[in-house]
Amino acid sequence: MTTARDLLVVVIDTRSGTSVEQGDLSLALAGAELLDLIDAGAADLDGDRVVPGPRQAAELAAEPATDDPLLRQAASSMIRQEPHEPVEDWLWRRGRDLVAAYLAEWGTTGSAAARWRARKPSLSIDPSALADSPARRHANDRWAAHEPVLTALAAAAGVGARYDGDPDDGPEGRDALTDLGDDRVVTVLAAVNEAVVELAGVRQRRAIETAAFDNIWRAV
């Protein structure tokens, strides 16, 4: 199991059928993939830019960093030439329709979750759509243990309190993330939260514009 798959399982299991914004979750999944690629040595960060990791392209081709098909796809999509893309650009590019991609990929192994209609703006799946398995139990064990990275990603997706930069926020606060001893993790998680906040602003502006347009027609 990858962190992205663990995240999707946790979101489905903890939401109990209520909705999560698909865009928020897609951004969080993209962040999870990037963290796993960094951990595998397939990617690294140079400041806030995504660069190839210690394992060179030839080595990755001969010995993939992961046997997960979507994570391999993420690795192959990395921009390897300068100027390398910022983390936030990676999140927006890789995150596009990523929830649907994961659910569709699950469908190739028989998961009922793949029958979810991916065009909906929010995610609402009954947890019973996921079969009990060691992978599902592993994800829920990470969640029950308050694993900091998974907790922070889930919060960005809308499960739990979202990190807002206050060091007193508990497990989701920057101090807890800094304790992981890797500035790259903090950089990725902060970028995920910033992208989610930006997306929320876009949704709010669109809602205001739609309401204003409706009011104009009512006045005619």
Automatic annotation (TrEMBL):
Localization terms from the record: Golgi apparatus membrane
Transmembrane segment boundaries: none
InterPro entries linked to this entry: GPP34-like, GPP34-like_sf
Source superkingdom: Bacteria
Membrane topology reported for the UniProt record: Peripheral membrane protein
Main location: Golgi
Alphabetical keyword list: Golgi apparatus, Lipid-binding, Membrane
Keyword Methyltransferase: no
Name of the protein this chain belongs to: GPP34 family phosphoprotein
